[in-house]
Amino acid sequence: MALKTEDQYRDSLRSMRPNVHKFGELIEDVTTHPATKNTIEGHASLFRSQHDEKLSQIVTTVSHITGEPISRYLSIIRSAEDMIANCLMKRFAFQLTGTCTGGRCVGWTALNSMFVTTFDCDKHLGTAYHLRFLEWLKNAQGRDITIAGALTDPKGDRTKKPSQQEDPDMNLRIVEKRDDGIVVRGAKVMICGVAAANEIFVLPGSAYGEQDKDYAVSFIIPRDIENLTIVEATHPSDGREGQRGFDIPNTCGGITQAYLFFEDVFIPNERVFMAGEYQFTKSAVFNFVAPYRSAIGGCVAGQGDIKIGAAILTARANGLSAKAFRDKLSQMYVNNETTFGLGIAASALGQKHPSGAWLPNMLLANVNKVHVATLPYETSRLAQDIAGGIGETGCMPSAVDFASDEYGHLIKKYMKAAASGEARARAARLVEWSTVGAGVPGCMHGGGSPDGAKLFIHALSGLEDKVELARRLAGINEEIPEPQKK
Amino acid sequence: MALKTEDQYRDSLRSMRPNVHKFGELIEDVTTHPATKNTIEGHASLFRSQHDEKLSQIVTTVSHITGEPISRYLSIIRSAEDMIANCLMKRFAFQLTGTCTGGRCVGWTALNSMFVTTFDCDKHLGTAYHLRFLEWLKNAQGRDITIAGALTDPKGDRTKKPSQQEDPDMNLRIVEKRDDGIVVRGAKVMICGVAAANEIFVLPGSAYGEQDKDYAVSFIIPRDIENLTIVEATHPSDGREGQRGFDIPNTCGGITQAYLFFEDVFIPNERVFMAGEYQFTKSAVFNFVAPYRSAIGGCVAGQGDIKIGAAILTARANGLSAKAFRDKLSQMYVNNETTFGLGIAASALGQKHPSGAWLPNMLLANVNKVHVATLPYETSRLAQDIAGGIGETGCMPSAVDFASDEYGHLIKKYMKAAASGEARARAARLVEWSTVGAGVPGCMHGGGSPDGAKLFIHALSGLEDKVELARRLAGINEEIPEPQKK
Amino acid sequence: MALKTEDQYRDSLRSMRPNVHKFGELIEDVTTHPATKNTIEGHASLFRSQHDEKLSQIVTTVSHITGEPISRYLSIIRSAEDMIANCLMKRFAFQLTGTCTGGRCVGWTALNSMFVTTFDCDKHLGTAYHLRFLEWLKNAQGRDITIAGALTDPKGDRTKKPSQQEDPDMNLRIVEKRDDGIVVRGAKVMICGVAAANEIFVLPGSAYGEQDKDYAVSFIIPRDIENLTIVEATHPSDGREGQRGFDIPNTCGGITQAYLFFEDVFIPNERVFMAGEYQFTKSAVFNFVAPYRSAIGGCVAGQGDIKIGAAILTARANGLSAKAFRDKLSQMYVNNETTFGLGIAASALGQKHPSGAWLPNMLLANVNKVHVATLPYETSRLAQDIAGGIGETGCMPSAVDFASDEYGHLIKKYMKAAASGEARARAARLVEWSTVGAGVPGCMHGGGSPDGAKLFIHALSGLEDKVELARRLAGINEEIPEPQKK
Amino acid sequence: MALKTEDQYRDSLRSMRPNVHKFGELIEDVTTHPATKNTIEGHASLFRSQHDEKLSQIVTTVSHITGEPISRYLSIIRSAEDMIANCLMKRFAFQLTGTCTGGRCVGWTALNSMFVTTFDCDKHLGTAYHLRFLEWLKNAQGRDITIAGALTDPKGDRTKKPSQQEDPDMNLRIVEKRDDGIVVRGAKVMICGVAAANEIFVLPGSAYGEQDKDYAVSFIIPRDIENLTIVEATHPSDGREGQRGFDIPNTCGGITQAYLFFEDVFIPNERVFMAGEYQFTKSAVFNFVAPYRSAIGGCVAGQGDIKIGAAILTARANGLSAKAFRDKLSQMYVNNETTFGLGIAASALGQKHPSGAWLPNMLLANVNKVHVATLPYETSRLAQDIAGGIGETGCMPSAVDFASDEYGHLIKKYMKAAASGEARARAARLVEWSTVGAGVPGCMHGGGSPDGAKLFIHALSGLEDKVELARRLAGINEEIPEPQKK
Q1: Can you give the pTM of this predicted structure?
Q2: 3-class SS at C126?
Q3: DSSP readout, C22-89?
Q4: Residues in chain A within 8 Å Cβ distance of D329
């Protein structure tokens, strides 16, 4: 079938069993329901881009299996160039949709992780997952499907391992192994873009030891599989998504994050890529982390592009020149390019894996994660600073009030400045939406917390080498060891 | 009548003409409508505190006019101690209500500004405003009313003065002077706490010259005065305020910010404190700015107290110890005490005005404003960092979903950690609410923008004195003047 | 004798036994030796100020013992106003001398600490130190002496208490108690302004328990007491102090920090204020810390004033307008006033001690210390940014080269810009001197490290109160305790 | 001759005419004089590395002209990999020498710039510089020479162009064109590593227009050419370089920055690469800036490695564990890898020039420059924080005092902690040296100021594209142009 059109994509979602809920209600058609429509429009625009001469170079590539053109989101990252293209596509996707298209990139990263992990697992344990994975992948490329990725378990009491929890379901686990497949129980939480996805790629949420081998599980399922219940989480100002008008200013994209409840879901063998091989859970997580934390710098740069644009648009609508904000803009540009650039650097300094995959630099990827957890907050603050009071918290009458017969004319009269009242309000709403509203993605903790990233940074920074450097330069001959606890 | 009870306060609001709107609808009873109920509960708790033995020391003082006990919000600030008590009360009010009680402090600051300004105006121009003001104040103290304050005009094209605007109404102005009063037209925008107020104190929005003397106007009006239409602005996640459940976790307080449209409102003379004396518009603004920017440091410190508490509560509900976050907590404490402390410093280094008022230090007040526009953002980021993914953007199923017959049990099962699912969700909601939700006040631009504060800082920092110091210390005898433009 | 003149002060130093060394050499006359002359000139200017009509209001006050005019540095701080005057004087002293006059303020803080500590000690242990202290103080005020203060011990292995050290001398201790006095052995290190002092006030370096009671010792000694050997530490670019010319651009002041070696020094009883009362070592340290960490904010603000002046002077000498650096100047002003202001706040929110002393607010004092350890570094960076390459590291030919017969004319020709080559070089040297040169004081660790300050902040910030606030606001009824270690 | 040994290198310097001065004195032998010895030892160690099996891979490459092995510092950067190798080598060189080896990298960048610029100039103006350049380069590679680079002119009054200056010599200029060469007059200032260089590559200091065509000049000269007078600038604590002992703790490397005075220096044609082609001055500067500002991130990362090592070494010598400083170390690691990584990113996102050269990404290079001007200051502060008071400003007795017969034993006794007194002092001296001493390079303004970098960032960040993005996303149809000045 090759590359789907946006309509084919929407049709593929409409043909699925409804199992997504929000605000206590089952969503019959995710493509039209206000809680999910915007994110699906965002994902649809990626399909539209596949058929645009210029943009297709960004969002498509060639399958290393079949040689056919495929969505880049279904490709294996095999070189620094591929990984750099990942960073670039993520920035582009934000610019296109104004926000996260999480129904694609997490799944993509997950499948790249399992490409490497199944290769290594087979090599060391004599399993046969890699070929099974390639079969599935080839088929998935042919179907041009959209894949969400799911790692995070509820975890319960964080001081205990999965098998030690009072309730053993607090991490997703295999409750039965059958000849033809496995049965899993538990949940995956805060999963991005599920409503926009055809399938969901599941990975273990952490590195596990032998006592937790039932939790060592990876597989791919249709989103509407039996016994899977999905509840969409809230996000800022989502109460406005049911309203008419422009209080949610951007309809080119949106974010959803779901809770997935697995009540004994059966997965056939051909879709299972790990089932008990706890020795490779660490590999699955690490091979996810490195590309994910590299490329997320592109995401927040794209997001920063929107904040910059929205802030200056509002300032101009207020009658102020961009020149008045040079210093703030400098800082915003620097923040943007820092996260973007560190992703590029992690890509460039990666290395080739025997499977043919390209593994980005783990230290730089995690350094990037630390910036991703801080710099966008400063960029948001500066956007609100530039935009003024109406942008700071969206302190304007609602779109419904703009339309009031009784006093709407007063709002329009007094909101007018260097642009019409509505244009000015829309610009300010975009600042609000992208800094304190429904457009704010969960990038700080998504893909792991900054404190987790710092653990990697400590492990990889080579402190003792630096200490030895200093000792040599200072001409110190005696040993100065780390003091021992008594 | 002395000090009102909270019920008397609610009654006073219920007895007023409905003229507040939101989402296209007239609010019949502000004390019960979901859009205004929370802020009124917050203000009511201040009245409750007046009758608490311990708390009354914070929120009440003695009238310098009558010697009677009065609300501190209706007092004249006459000493460093009074001004410090202002900072302390603001921090307390945030702790009590979780947020801003803007229907009191802006009005309070406004009346203090006009206490000084009418004194000076009378002295220089021979007017008789000060006594009129004192008469009104004595009466207001007796009635124990709640007073919002209104400064900000819509402004229109920011490159033009009020009288040069295409539409002369873009700043509030006197359209008619009668024997018994004045008629005003225009708007005041982003006015905090109007729904919770009995009266509104209006000040000029800027310093004006003679050609703009019609805009030099200050007065006090009942909130429900004829020809005044009020529309409440949106704030983050306000769509949830109509819902049941705990998605808006805090019901002890709330924020509203309104747009006030004056369609030829008549104000009787006894409530007018400036009507054309453009020479004192600057004084009115400056005498507002200094105490406001000093005491707002107490506000954001109180807000920071909530963020710290909510973040650690969530972390513990996640099963994590506060000890894991020592460094982040240090930073949050330092941010908090910095804004609080600079307000205290501005109070302590103030000076006595001939009218008897105490004027805080203008340089330190404005330095504080710059911190107020930055540090709370960092504190919010750290709160989200500590609280984890569920706190970052409130990424949890809604309270409605918690209550679902069909799958509510799954949510409760999987949200449970070191606390019940609901308690954990409530804690995380408070992090969301106070950092990216309905509890976020507009402190960056409220009371003037940080860029405005920097203008004061430049004017007051004495650059040339510092340059002379340096020249003397460096032993330079020749003059090194500022280069001249050619 | 009342208030000394600067000549009387210099004479008092010249009359002392030489016991100060630097670079392997005994300094015969500290008032003329290049290593100590500048700091003595700085201290002398404080004596000059005592006799200036305007400045005497800053540097003198009235003795609460005798009612006579005395140096403020010899006064007891008895009110918020006194403490604020401390902050102001410290800022002034930096402006006057370009740097630290550490031979006065540490001793002053030390004597204030022992005023309180002897009072409490007498009350609880029945000792009779307070009166003895007052006798000494009255006499010291009469003699108008300059007093350095000494707290920091060498400490040896930081994981062991004083009495557990391999070498028991690693903290200063009483080795003999006689009827007429005590004999002490050990060292005090990094002591500021000793060369400029007549006497040295010694305090315990930490809070000690009973096993370390020999280390609980406080006394005052003449700087030239028998068996005391003093070695001045190096400071940046001190190799230039012997050179002629303006490579050390400022001769109005300077810093010294000394190592004091006590080889069985005898101290007569009338100068001993603690000798074994380990229970009050904590008090001695705490009562030192609070005023010291409050007022040091004034120091670094004064230092910031110099950096601002020097940077702009250099920029103008380069031909650039101060206007080009508005944003950097804003940041520098804010940094300055933040440390200054927090000192004022700590002063204002202090409390009266039964002895009559005023104790500043401990939380705010320690918050200030954290800023003191960070903000001046940013101010220095900005000064170098403004001043350009010649200011950054003083990248200019030396004053000796300026004077070269052979090529000095080339240097003068090419260093000339909007000011003469020498004036431009002097301005840039002052930037270097105050940011990376001999004028940089050790404020980060002086008076205790920022990590030590954070311990106080954690202890005083009331975390559990904030958590309770949050729990109440979020409507959580269940207890969510701090997780216990297993 | 291929790759020189370190002895051959030292010999090459000894054979040159003495024309370098410092402190008013002519330096007869730069390889032994204390003012220049350390930098020459640093440069010598690069020659030593050429002959080390492992290190030669870092510091050598293959000539694209001859196919012979050459110093990487004499190579043309022809690919992303070459440019990445530049960043890596710069970090390595800092680790090897503890500081900057500026006698190599600036010259290298300069020759790469002129490789491109001569190519473009020939193409557009029909000149024949490129072949001449290649001839010289081939020869230089064969001789394995060390080349300093010189761009910065004294500039005089910064508000005037070169030809408008009162003194036309304030920028280096051609005063005579002869058949066989040109004669130049003027100066180049703050030139790094000249004492360690065999030759000096001169570039125009800025982009010039036609009226300043005499200032459009580029050439390469022997360091000891007739009529060139060199004066070394001071740097922090350089007065200690004459002393014995370890007060300058690192003797593996050092920095020098010189002022070069050209008093009518004749340069033969074969060494002239620009002489009046003002149209290509911009190109010369831009093609220098991009690689320089990319790779300098590697420098400051290497410098950060030293600071981290020195700080932890000192902490351990103090008896403290590195674990106590995890949070500070995190920040230092992040700072380090940020500048390093952004250089890698700029390298990776570069593009091929028709000449065969690789041009790094200009936006990312300049973003890096902004970080280079800020992050190292924070790393220095943290190093001083970790190291304690003795590291902060090197507050210890001098090495001469350590050796005192009279009291040296006291210093050693009391400086001892978890390491011997001398080892502890050496470690702390390395902190001082690298953060506030002679090891601090002028990276903020070297290669252009951060404000200059921001001009590039503004020009390259595509503000209008971002504004258009925002306008589309917000659904605004009307134009909102930049307000026009009236």
Answers
A1: 0.97
A2: coil
A3: ETTEE-S-TTTSTTTHHHHHHHHHHHHHHTSTTTHHHHEEE-TTT--EEEGGGS---SHHHHHHHHHH
A4: 458, 461, 463
Residue B435, CA distances (Å) to B98, B379, B387, B394 in order = 12, 9, 11, 10
Hey, how many other C-beta atoms are within 10 angstroms of the C-beta on A486?
A: 5
Task: Give the distance from residue C361's alpha carbon to the nearest chain B alpha carbon, in angstroms.
Answer: 10
pLDDT at residue A1 greater than cutoff 70 = no
Interface test with A, best of D454, D469, D482, D484 (most A CBs within 10 A): D469
Six-digit token pair at B167? 């539409």
- In this prediction the ipTM stands at 0.97
CB atoms within 10 A of CB B391: 33
Integer Cα distance of A380 and C368 in angstroms: 28
Residues forming beta bridges with residue C199, ordered by sequence position: C147, C222
For chain D, what's the residue count? 486
Q: Provide φ and ψ at A248, rounded to 5°.
A: -95, 100
Residue A357 CB neighbours (<10 A)? 23
Distance of alpha carbon B218 from alpha carbon B201, whole angstroms: 8
Is C307 an interface residue toward D (CB < 8 Å)?
A: no
Residues of chain C neighbouring B427 (CB-CB closer than 8 A): 470-471, 474, 476, 480
C102-125 vs C80-97: helix axis angle to the nearest 10?
160
Binary contact (A349, D344; C-beta < 8 A): yes
User: Which one of C398, C405, C420, C455 makes the best mutation probe of the D interface by having the most chain D beta carbons within 10 Å?
Assistant: C398
Q: What angle do helix axes D463-473 and A281-317 make, rounded to 10 degrees? A: 90
DSSP string covering A254-316: ---EEEEEEEEEEEEGGGEEEES-GGGHHHHHHHHHHHHHHHHHHHHHHHHHHHHHHHHHHHH
Report CA-CA distances (Å) from A453 to A106, A292, C40, C271, D427: 18, 12, 52, 57, 30
Q: What φ, ψ does residue C405 adopt, rounded to 5°?
A: -65, -35
Q: How far does Cα A327 stand from its chain's mean position?
A: 31
Q: Does D417 touch chain C (CB under 8 A)?
A: yes
Spatial separation of the C-alpha atoms in residues B344 and B333, rounded to whole Å = 16
Amino acid symbol at A321 = S
Q: CA–CA separation, A118 vs A111, rounded Å?
A: 10
Three-state DSSP state, D472: helix
Q: Which chains touch A (3 or more CB pairs under 8 A)?
A: B, C, D
Write the burial class of residue B180 (CB in 10 Å: 0-12 exposed, 13-18 middle, 19+ buried): exposed
pLDDT digits (tens, 9 = 90+) for B473-484: 999 999 999 998
**CA of B296 to nearest chain D CA: how many angstroms apart?**
30
Residue B423 Cα, gap to closest chain D Cα (Å): 31
Residues 132-161 of B with CB under 8 A from D: 159
- Determine, for residues A483 and D333 on separate chains, whether the beta-carbon distance falls below 8 Å: no
pLDDT (0 to 100) of residue A185: 98
Of D321, D330, D430, the CB nearest to A482: D321
Give the model's confidence band at A262: pLDDT under 50 very low, under 70 low, under 90 confident, else very high.
Answer: very high
Element (H, E) at B262: strand B257-268
CA D379 from centre of chain:
19
Nearest Cα residue in chain B from D160: B486
The answer to whether C98 and C307 are in contact (CB under 8 A) is: no
| pLDDT tier at B1, thresholds 50, 70, 90 | low
Portion of chain D with pLDDT greater than 90, in percent:
97
What is the per-residue pLDDT across D98-108, written as a single tens digit (0 to 9) for each? Answer: 999 999 999 99
Residue ranges of chain D whose pLDDT lies below 50: none
